[in-house]
Design a protein that fits this description.
4-stranded antiparallel sheet, globular, 9 strands, homodimer, 5-stranded antiparallel sheet, alpha+beta
Chain lengths: ~425, ~425
């Protein structure tokens, strides 16, 4: 016969019931303690504290959930308070602990919404970023930070072909959770959003996934091509802000996010040969056109017997290549997204009407300065890339991701010091 | 130096390049062959052929992508042709093979869109269902099948509280792909959709995920509660259509799908004690109220010292329980879904305006007859379940999933014989 407990458990009973998870991270949560002491983390765990934020050069997790927030408060103290609680909570969740120690009573909302109870953190990282709106918005210096807005945190120019939807674009703060478990990523954003009640509100979100190849190697995107064959020869100087930046950004990075819808119905009706000409790579192998090895150098100067370039002038890889952009490099960390289907009525022959996928690429790219990174690379691509026939940028943002957090600090703390 | 290949590979070159995957399933694809002979499947693989379709009693995979299709053709032969190609293609993909053998030329669209190249099938199952519209639609007997529409394939009544959006509801055919890899599930639906060009078109889709507990046991839903503690004591008589059904449905099942949005912002602001009263179970343990063991019988008759029931009269588990519904049982196989956020302006105090999650439960339930299954159970629940304050049914459908497929057959083939 099942043993009985009171319908309304005592504080002791509740803590005992919820205690399994707390115990699993080593116990020792004093109520209000910032971070568990000597936490015995439930593997697999990615470090939260360090010289850099997690989720930037961390090997890509399988799932992401990204949220951009609008600040609703007019008080600088509220922003600092929020960043403090976000930092402490993200650090806890990275270890697989709940957002906060369980409440002592059932007569209150839970301190955690509990959907991740019993899951591992699955390499959870939470990466925070600051949008231009933290510094100034509609001409207002809401928090006395306008004077310290970094020059690199530009207002992105309008690129050729941009169809950015305002409700999917921008935001004062960004939170990107990455985990091998989609529930863990959702859970993390949800807890941070709860902490933001009355201070900040979600503006837009985007989930994404990436599937690892069974035998390792470069993953494929929804176009069926390998995506990520090229990465910068040296990551550190491409990604991390150095002494050229303000103290709070040193060891940090700028992230450009673009929600890139792919016209998959058209792509799927396109000859594979033309797809390969468009990308400049072979579909199955990922090798540059005319070669067999995925990682062979592009050799943009190769020509056929008639003198025509093997990799077309407007092929994606040619225009994206560092050699075409004065050496500019970025670190991509993208995900595929699948947001179902929408009705479309096309404005060109044969005037197809019907459902189309709202699916494509959540482009996420890190760089030490977007002016010499994404902006420099994408200016030409936006105009000339053959791939533009099949993709539409429908949202995104630029966020300054502060340097890594030391225990006791909150993310971006040095931004608020002495201003 | 990388070796060079012609920019436009020969047939031999292309087949060789794409051949890695074909070889991985054992080769032997003759062009046009229905199913690979003696295929050496890439594990992990779920069987496609058998007495029942996969994806019904198959242990739940981590991800799903479900699509409902509207038939656009007026020809019965087109429908049969589509089901033939869907069957053959789903069988191939279940083994990790591409949708079809690679084409011999680059001057044609790919026979597969290739985003699953290099992935395992990750236990892919594809479950097909027939909506009422296959049999009759708007009074029309499009395919001469009206006379054999099973009585069990009812038009679902309008339930109390239903807010079904037409563009997320119904459909003539359903395809549910389940896999431990979200890319594999998307890929499967996409290939089948491509085969349907000019015959059927996607009407709506829904993706979902479910996270396995680190130590095993019942997974949690986005409300933070364990979901699925109760399952029918005997699955077979609950799920499978027997001799009471037409030949093509024997060994099949009826699936009710409901897209159930959860008001997570409200739920998260609700006291945990009230959440538990609403569900009738404890949040952390999953045990019936007042008990400690998740799997303890509900004992609906238990009362406190004042004679009030321990499990409230309108608690979710009481109303869902077989004892409250004349013994009615269904097999649930649900997933969580996360479709981002929407703007809402509430029509009740305090008239909150802002973003709300479009997230919740993709309810999927199988039964041998919906009249004595979901309809019977849900009639009362729709009216009285306390949980209704926090959930809204926004879409879904009822589909007859034919019995299992034998090699050489196509799914539902016996429906078309002799009518």
């Amino acid at each position: 016969m099942a043993s009985e407990v009171p319908t309304r458990p005592s504080r002791r009973g509740l803590l005992a019931a919820a205690g399994g998870l707390v115990a699993a991270v080593g116990g020792g949560f004093a109520a209000g303690a910032a971070v568990p002491q000597a936490a015995k983390a439930r593997a697999p765990v990615e470090p939260f504290f360090g010289a850099h934020q997690g989720g930037i050069v961390t090997p890509a997790q399988d799932h992401t959930y990204l949220a951009a927030f609008d600040l609703r408060t007019t008080k600088r103290e509220d922003v600092m308070k929020l960043l403090r609680s976000w930092t402490d909570t993200a650090a806890r969740m990275s270890l697989g602990a709940p957002a906060a120690p369980p409440a002592a009573t059932l007569d209150a909302p839970g301190t955690d919404s509990d959907e991740a109870l019993g899951l591992t953190p699955a390499r959870l990282t939470v990466t925070f970023g600051f949008g231009a709106g933290l510094f100034e918005k509609a001409g207002k210096d809401r928090y006395g930070l306008a004077v310290v807005r970094p020059a690199a945190l530009v207002d992105l120019p309008r690129f050729n072909g941009d169809q950015l939807v305002p409700t999917r674009t921008g935001g004062d703060l960004s939170v990107q959770a990455c985990s091998d478990d989609p529930m863990v990523a959702f859970h993390a954003v949800r807890q941070l959003s709860r902490l933001a009640y009355d201070i900040a509100e979600i503006r837009w979100t985007q989930s994404g996934f990436q599937s690892r190849q069974a035998k390792g190697g470069t993953p494929r995107n929804l176009m069926g091509f390998k995506d990520g064959t090229h990465s910068p020869p040296q990551v550190d100087p491409v990604v991390w802000v150095g002494t050229e930046g303000p103290a709070w950004m040193q060891g940090g990075s700028y992230v450009v996010v673009r929600r890139i819808r792919m016209a998959l119905e058209h792509w799927d009706r396109t000859n594979v040969g033309f797809q390969e000409q468009t990308l400049g790579r072979h579909k199955v192998s990922g090798a540059p056109l005319g070669l067999r090895d995925e990682f062979a150098p592009l050799r943009l100067d190769r020509a056929d017997k008639d003198g025509n370039p093997i990799i077309p002038e407007n092929a994606h890889v040619r225009l994206a290549n560092a050699a075409s952009n004065g050496g500019a490099e970025i670190l991509r960390r993208g995900y595929s997204y699948n947001d179902g289907v929408n009705f479309t009525a096309e404005r060109w022959p044969p005037w197809r009407q019907g459902m189309e996928y709202d699916a494509g690429l959540l482009f996420v790219a890190y760089q030490r300065d977007p002016r010499t990174g994404f902006v420099k690379i994408f200016e030409n691509m936006a105009k000339f890339d053959m791939l533009n026939q099949f993709v539409t940028h429908t949202g995104g943002g630029l966020f300054a991701c502060p340097g890594g957090v030391r225990e006791g600090e909150f993310v971006g703390q040095r931004l608020f010091v002495g201003v």
